[in-house]
Amino acid sequence: MGLINELKPCFTGTSTSKTAITPELKVLCALNFYASGSYQRYVGNDRYIGLSQKSVSRCIRDVTNAICSGLFNKWIKFPINSFQQNKIKLGFNQKFGFPGVIGAVDGTHVAIIAPKDTEECQGFIYINRKSFHSLNVQLICDSDLMIINVNAKFPGSSHDSFVWRSSGVRHALSRHHETGSWLLGDAGYPLEPWLLTPVPSPTVGSANERYNKKHATARNCIERCIGVLKSRFRCLLHARELNYEPTTAGKIVNACAVLHNICRHYKLPDIENDCREEPIPPTVFEPSLRAAALKIRDNLILTRF
User: Fold this and answer.
1) How far apart are CA 55 and CA 146, in angstroms?
2) 10 near 27, Cβ under 8 Å?
3) What is the pLDDT of residues 10-46, one digit of tens each?
4) Burial code of 131-169, b = ≥16 C-beta within 10 A, e = fewer?
5) pTM of structure
6) Residue 183: beta bridge partners?
């Protein structure tokens, strides 16, 4: 009921007739879709719902828009001040023994139907390296698997590093980077002063290898986060495929991220499957940033590993 009460003020254009669909039924219908990823007709045929396909479509649209407009900024927050960042750093340090971490970042593909070609956009750009249409969704989480940033605007052909380079988080960190604070990313991301990646081919038993092991353990939280998110909200799985144009599909991803954080906040049991994807090839850009980041990473390894 708490979720429904929060969403009620966000519903717009709702009919007041006796046949109007109640906010409670709208939310129940949308949650059924998010969790199952079934076709709208099958969602409507649920014995607790009993709605036509068109009504189910309106419910999903209304609830998705309500979550994105009314709850997104409340539940998805990137740490912007020292107090918020220190809280996340403490979690990563206590759990994984890795200092200075304000989040772990990774991309995941959410399958969509082939978009129609328009003057602004050609559908083929949504074909990813595995040859299906998708959004390449960038997620950042803390050590408790709470999502602190989501970017679901980019087509599947975009490399993780391109999504990162274009993200608001990177722009904010490049302008207001605090010494001793960084995100963790895999080798598909560029090494930057605010984004630490693994050391390639470290010597066995070396400090570099110890750093890599700690890095992988701490970064694993984003892989687990993606697994929990997609397992709970099966509409995001590759096998389901969102039958929506890219903008609406992105809103559904954002809505599921909000609901994921609500579930984590209220300690609902996780549903966790292995949703890991193939590693992305390494990327390097802006050599000056890499040089500065190498000094930071080398100093961290020298003093902590």
Assistant:
1) 32
2) no
3) 665 544 444 577 888 888 889 989 998 765 544 545 5
4) eebbbbbbbbbbbebbbbbbbbbbbbebbbbebbbebeb
5) 0.89
6) 103, 195
